[in-house]
Design brief:
The complex is a heterodimer of chains A (483) and B (481).
Chain A (H helix, E strand, L loop, with lengths): L3 H9 L5 H19 L2 E3 L2 H11 L12 E5 L26 H8 L3 E6 L33 H9 L4 E6 L5 H7 L2 E4 L19 E6 L2 H11 L29 E5 L9 H17 L2 E5 L7 H16 L18 H12 L2 H14 L5 H24 L2 E5 L15 H6 L5 H6 L3 E9 L2 E8 L5 H14 L16
Parallel strand pairs in A: 2-3, 2-4, 7-8, 7-9
Antiparallel strand pairs in A: 1-3, 4-6, 5-6, 5-10, 9-11, 10-11
Chain B lengths: L2 E11 L39 H13 L3 E2 L2 E2 L2 E4 L9 E4 L6 E10 L2 E14 L3 E5 L10 E5 L6 E7 L6 H18 L11 E10 L9 E6 L2 H20 L7 E6 L4 E7 L9 E2 L6 E2 L2 H10 L4 H10 L4 H8 L2 H13 L3 H18 L11 H12 L5 H14 L3 H7 L8 H14 L1 H8 L5 H12 L6 H14 L1
Parallel strand pairs in B: 12-13
Antiparallel strand pairs in B: 1-10, 1-11, 2-6, 3-16, 4-5, 4-15, 6-7, 7-10, 8-9, 11-12, 13-14
The chains are: A alpha/beta (483), B alpha+beta (481).
The structure holds zinc ion.
């Protein structure tokens, strides 16, 4: 239960070696997993191999001996990657995602693959074919989704850092629900090569951690151009650590009226009140702003993301890899039975929605129109960032809810992401910071900044964390009776 | 009036070294299945496409050569459908913003120029290949099918014409000319038998000016010959229907090579909805003026231009076509022409001596290792009466088969023309005394016998003597008798 800086110090002072540090986390995993189910697989053999390989590498590597958990929709060579779906139940990738490659090259140890909503489709981590992940703060509640496992494992102290993916809030919402930090970088900052595509124009990989510094260190490794991803930005990345600790005095913080008050629960608003006091102490100015097109963000998101998903998930057809229903008698029934049995109901719902939206005669009314509104939303953010440096909003309109509470009502579930979705549509970066607790349940605040200004965003979040620091606050292990 | 209206959709594999979106080799003939594949071209989870710049350049070159406008801004789209040979469940293609638009090819049809407009050219990826095991040769009839992804991801250009073609012959000529242009550009092998050039045809019958009939689409045409045959069959079929007062059904039809007819494949109602949408994994394709100009400068002289130039050399249209239809031969001709001025004579040497050799040995010109300077030197020696034509022919053959330098052979074996009259007179005297019957005939007035006697003398000289000289000397001797 340490930060990266603390683990580094342990190695420097030779208080413990990599094996011992990794084992201490595996110990934590053993304690917590029966209660929260954050991990889908722990590759014990591979971990030993990784530790061995590290022996020949320089201890000065930025992530030397740092255990990192990876969401199970990010490919890890020779380690099962399932997307929490039956259709990829036994899929062992032949290559590492670019982010995984970069982490390993910089000394990190991949200690496990974390649970998610199937193919990252969901806001509660309940849509996993292998059982839901639970919130370490209250195991009767959800950890948020879709990167619920990656958030919960950092929250419980099973890993100091993890990677998730964020298509409509899948990093920030679970970060908020579990009381950790989660960053969704600018679209194109982090390579998507090796991330199983859900909605290609929205997906972005980002880190979870407990301090802004840890987030910055990790981002520094995974960000930057990848020739394997044509949508990754070709520009040099800045030094994300440089701004940490520098003053944000007189920065302007925008408060969009569309994202506060309306639809946000009393408990969340009450908990976030404290942040306005913090802003004052940070010396920033508050400005109310308006982003009127956000009203359409949810429908636009569900048209674009499901359309892309319907195409991205077509490759799971039983022909090349993954699950196949061998009882099928001909090609068409092989497709139908394989996909019918291999995908869960939320995934199927979204494939059907997307297929419909792209169909002849509907394309113009749905997909094309959605892309036009998306452009409007993007322009509104661009305009807003001419006036303010940071935009702040709640990360979630509600507190972590109970398992089963929203799963039967997709629309209620979709509304959970109302604060985070506009960020993906615009492509800008955003971070969720733990802002307080309500009845021992975490509440997060979301900070957004302009395209490729993660350095500024992290500088601001770091300043905020100097006043609101929950990095040492851990949930307590539940009593055995509560399993 | 029954006027056929035909449009073609041609797919040509581009001969880039690597595939369109990954770094796999494009080699796929005679290879074990699934050996030139990687996670990207097999559609594994998490993979992303990266565009092969060479393929884009080739497609632009095709556009420039076919007189198209090149789009400064175009994009890729996904064409969604399920089939086992399509690894991602969609093909990356181009839908509403193709790379090239509004071009044309001018054809010579029966001495007249016929312009066929090109509607568009776009880039897309090829699919894999299915191998059907069991009773039938189609998926639905087989026991099981195997998939080979070696071909998946090879770059293709699709060239779509306007419905400007009005006969099966024009269709064939168009396709042949298109292939020739692609070969001149060096961007496609254009081999129909091997599937690197594929053609679908849309055809309808126009019964009155300005009114279009219902069209059918013909697939599975695998040679120039079957394109012509399939269209002839389909024209006749549609005219029959119209004559009966019935209506042609809009459908896709399959050319059945074995039975030489088209059969219904699927109707319009069964046509798939491909749900095209912009490929989110690829940024738009931007083509700068600079890039266009650079590619323009790399385009070689094209067949049409070459035809014009050769016709101006007063070669006959047939002779011109012999040259133009083979770029390697034509390039050789041009090289030789630079050091040898007589185009007609050069062409005659090439078509008579070289092409007959190629035909006999089932070779192509590009298989030959022939030096234009040596070749021209040989012709010049004949022109200057330094060697005889038969000697030149023989030496040329030896050059082609055994790579022996013809000039070295001539000197080593003393094959230059024999001009020593007394040596020839000795041979002639021998021939006269050994062929008394022929000599008698000559005396009786059968003057044509002299050709036989000349032949006998030539044989003795191993072809080294000039025919005229031998004939004159022979007549002299015979007249003395
Ligand atoms: Zn490949």
């Amino acid at each position: 239960m340490r930060t990266l800086r603390e683990i580094k110090k342990i190695y420097e002072n030779k208080e413990a070696n990599v094996k011992e540090v990794v084992e201490s986390y595996l110990e934590k995993i053993k304690e917590w997993e029966p209660y929260i189910n954050a991990f889908l697989h722990i590759p014990y053999e591979d971990i030993e191999k990784q530790i061995k390989e590290l022996e020949s590498k320089s201890p000065n590597l930025p992530l030397y001996g740092i255990p990192i958990a990876i969401k199970d929709n990010i490919l890890t060579k020779n380690i099962k990657t399932t997307c929490a779906s039956k259709i990829l139940e036994n899929f062992i990738p032949p290559y590492d995602a670019t982010v995984v490659k970069r982490l390993k090259e910089n000394g990190a140890i991949i200690i496990g693959k974390t649970n998610l909503d199937e193919f990252a489709m969901g806001s509660s981590c309940e849509n996993s074919a292998f059982g839901p992940t639970k919130n370490p703060w209250d195991i009767e509640r959800v950890p948020g989704g879709s990167s619920g496992g990656s958030a919960a494992c950092v929250s419980a102290g099973e890993a100091p850092i993890s990677l998730g993916s964020d298509t409509g809030g899948s990093i920030r919402l679970p970060a908020s629900f579990t009381g950790v930090i989660g960053l969704k970088p600018t679209y194109g900052l982090v390579s998507r090569f090796g991330l199983v595509a859900f909605a290609s124009s929205l997906d972005q990989i980002g880190p979870f951690g407990r301090t802004v510094e840890d987030i910055a260190i990790t981002l520094q490794i995974i960000a930057g151009h990848d020739p394997m991803d044509s949508t990754s930005s070709p520009y040099e990345i800045p030094n994300y650590l440089e701004g940490l600790g520098k003053s944000v005095k007189n920065w302007r913080v925008g408060i969009p009226k569309e994202l506060w008050y309306k639809g946000v629960s009393e408990e969340v608003l009450k908990t976030l009140e404290n942040s306005f006091g913090v802003f004052k102490e940070m010396g920033v100015t508050i400005e109310e702003i308006s982003l009127p097109s956000l009203e359409y963000a949810l429908p636009v998101y569900y048209i674009i993301s499901t359309s892309e998903a319907s195409s991205n998930l077509a490759r799971y057809d039983g022909v090349k890899y993954g699950y196949r229903d061998f009882t099928a008698e001909d090609l068409i029934s092989m497709y139908k039975q394989t996909r019918g049995k291999g995908f869960g109901s939320e995934v199927k719902r979204r494939i059907i929605l997307g297929t419909y939206a792209l169909s002849a005669g509907y394309y113009d009314a749905y997909y094309l129109k959605a892309t036009k509104v998306r452009r409007l939303i993007r322009i509104e953010f661009e305009e807003a960032f001419k006036k303010v440096d940071i935009i702040a909003s709640p990360t979630s309109p509600v507190l972590p809810f109970k398992l089963g509470e929203r799963i039967s009502d997709p629309l209620q579930m979709y509304l959970t992401d109302i604060m985070t979705i506009p960020v993906n549509l615009a492509g800008i970066p955003a971070i969720s910071m733990p802002a307080g607790f309500y009845n021992n349940l975490p509440v997060g605040i979301q900070f957004m900044s302009s395209f490729f200004t993660e350095d500024k965003l992290l500088q601001f979040a770091y300043a905020y964390q100097q006043f609101v620091d929950f990095s040492k606050k851990y949930p307590t292990l539940p009593n055995k009776e509560r399993v | 009036m029954y006027k056929p209206v035909i449009g073609l959709e041609v797919h040509a594999q581009l001969s880039t070294k690597t595939k369109l979106f990954c770094s796999c080799s494009t080699e796929h003939e005679n290879l074990p299945p699934n050996t030139n594949v990687c996670p990207i071209c097999m559609g594994f989870p998490g993979v992303l496409p990266v565009v092969n710049k060479k393929a884009v350049e080739y497609a632009i070159k095709a556009g420039l050569a076919l007189n198209c406008e090149i789009s400064n801004y175009s994009k890729f789209d996904r064409k969604n459908y399920f089939y086992p040979d399509l690894p991602k469940g969609y093909q990356i293609s181009q839908y509403d913003l193709p790379l090239c638009r509004n071009g044309y090819i001018d054809l010579y049809v029966d001495g007249e120029i016929k312009r066929v407009r090109i509607k568009r050219i776009h880039l897309e990826e090829d699919a894999g290949k299915l191998l059907h095991i069991g009773s039938g040769d189609r998926l639905s009839e087989s026991d099981y099918s195997l998939v080979d992804f070696n071909r998946a991801g090879i770059p293709l250009i699709e060239i779509v014409t306007e419905p400007d073609i009005n006969s099966p012959k024009e269709a064939r000529l168009f396709l042949q000319e298109l292939r020739l242009i692609l070969r001149y550009l060096g961007i496609s092998s254009g081999d129909m038998e091997k599937g690197s050039l594929r053609c679908d045809a849309n055809i309808s019958i126009q019964t009155e000016e300005g009114k279009f009939g219902t069209r059918t689409e013909i697939k599975n045409v695998n040679s120039f010959f079957s394109l012509e045959k399939a269209l002839e069959y389909e024209i006749e079929r549609q005219i029959e229907i119209l004559k009966r007062g019935e209506e042609v059904i809009q459908e896709t039809r399959h050319w059945d090579e074995k039975n030489q007819k088209t059969v219904s494949l699927r109707s319009k109602e069964e046509a798939e909805d491909y749900r095209y949408f912009p490929e989110p994994d690829l940024p738009p394709l931007m083509v700068t003026e600079e890039m266009k100009n650079k590619l323009k400068s790399e385009i070689p002289e094209l067949p049409a231009k070459r035809r014009e130039r050769y016709l101006a050399l007063e070669l006959s249209p047939v002779d011109v076509e012999i040259l133009v239809s083979d770029k390697d031969l034509s390039d050789f001709f041009d090289k030789a022409l630079r050091i040898y001025g007589n185009a007609k004579n050069l062409h005659s040497w090439l078509s008579v001596e070289i092409l007959s050799y190629l035909n006999e040995n089932k070779l192509e010109f590009k298989d030959l290792d022939i030096d234009s300077e040596r070749f021209v030197k040989l012709i010049e020696m004949v022109d200057k009466n330094e060697i005889t034509r038969p000697v030149a022919k023989e030496v040329l053959r030896r050059y082609l088969t055994k790579k022996e330098d013809p000039l070295v052979i001539i000197e080593r074996e003393g094959l230059r023309v024999v001009s020593d009259t007394s040596y020839l007179q000795d041979i002639i005297k021998n021939v006269i005394s050994n062929n008394s019957k022929a000599v008698e005939d000559w005396k009786k007035g059968k003057k044509q016998v002299i050709n036989f006697l000349v032949g006998q003398v030539m044989k003795e000289t191993r072809g080294r003597a000039s025919l005229d000289v031998v004939k004159n000397l022979l007549e002299e001797e015979l007249n003395k008798l």
